[in-house]
Design goal:
single chain, mainly alpha, 3 helices
């Protein structure tokens, strides 16, 4: 269930976010607030392309040294 959701687990509501891709890239508990803040900002600014590009740039900066695949 989604925490604090008043709906049955059999009714789709809320969002569920997995962490394997970010933990594989080395993010730890202390990074999760930033991830949540990025998601919150993106949802809040869903219709604002300029804000979304700025958020995307900040996410890219945060993840640039944390590659998903190393070859």
């Amino acid at each position: 269930m989604v925490p604090f959701d008043d709906k049955s687990p059999f009714i789709t509501s809320g969002i569920r976010v997995g962490t394997p891709a970010i933990t594989t890239r080395g993010l730890k508990v202390e990074h999760m607030k930033a991830v949540v803040d990025f998601i919150d900002e993106a949802i809040t600014n869903a219709g604002n392309e300029e804000a979304l590009h700025e958020i995307s740039d900040r996410v890219s900066d945060m993840m640039s040294s944390r590659r998903l695949f190393v070859m």
